[in-house]
Write a structure and sequence with these properties.
Blueprint (H helix, E strand, L loop, with lengths): L4 E7 L6 E6 L4 H16 L28
Antiparallel strand pairs: 1-2
Length: about 70
């Protein structure tokens, strides 16, 4: 078990693949540190990891054409 791990999904395993993992926010660092250590021991290279969070989802709405290309 990894600290704070709630569930995950493997995608594209035939070419190295990637995983999406749901982890308790309070365990993010411990989870990443432990997973990185295990991966590095097994494959002799460090994994690439990105952390993100959940949002409120998409919403309907209308954007004025002039706002499309504003930065």
């Amino acid at each position: 078990r990894l600290p704070g791990f709630l569930g995950g999904k493997l995608s594209g395993g035939g070419f190295g693949g990637s995983t999406v993992n749901i982890v308790e926010a309070s365990s993010e660092k411990a989870f990443c540190d432990e997973l990185s250590a295990r991966f590095t021991r097994k494959f002799d290279r460090a994994p690439r990891m990105n952390a993100c969070g959940f949002g409120d989802g998409a919403r309907g709405g209308r954007m004025e054409k002039e706002a499309w290309f504003k930065s």
